Amino acid sequence: QSESLVVCDVAEDLVEKLRKFRFRKETNNAAIIMKIDKDKQLVVLDEEHEVFDFLVSLTSEKTFIVYSYKYQHEDGRVSYPLCFIFSSPVGCKPEQQMMYAGSKNKLVQTAELTKVFEIRNTEDLTEEWLREKLGFFH
């Protein structure tokens, strides 16, 4: 008997926060980090950050990140792409992995994001990595 994929709902207040985040006017880098509340089966806000360095502090927990990044194009234009980063480190419990995997698409749809990146090793999560990923979206 295999466990069925659990799709967690997105907490109401988080839906609202993501909506506001999408239309923010600030020009700094900022991130919303989300996690799953296993008991409530809800995707909830974990923390918010305004610098890139926070990415280094990610633990081996599975994590959803919505990141607003100030991207300087080669022609001098500046854009602020919203990225969805799904960190899926090796070695986390299968039950947890399934909850996160099952909820990822729902969260991406809720946040209406198109730039979705998955990363296995959080040490690879650098600004260079993100710029390279965004480079494909010219």
From TrEMBL:
Keyword Phosphoprotein found: yes
Protein name: Glia maturation factor beta
Gene Ontology CC terms, in alphabetical order: cortical actin cytoskeleton
Record flagged with keyword Acetylation: yes
PANTHER family: GLIA MATURATION FACTOR BETA, GLIAL FACTOR NATURATION FACTOR
Function: This protein causes differentiation of brain cells, stimulation of neural regeneration, and inhibition of proliferation of tumor cells.
SMART domains: ADF
Domain ADF-H intervals: 4-135
Gene Ontology MF annotations: actin binding; Arp2/3 complex binding; growth factor activity
GO biological process, any: actin filament debranching
InterPro entries in UniProt: ADF-H, ADF-H/Gelsolin-like_dom_sf, GMF
Lineage: Eukaryota, Metazoa, Chordata, Craniata, Vertebrata
UniProt family annotation: Belongs to the actin-binding proteins ADF family. GMF subfamily.
Gene3D superfamilies reported in the protein's UniProt record: Severin
Keyword terms, alphabetized: Acetylation, Growth factor, Phosphoprotein
PROSITE patterns assigned: ADF_H
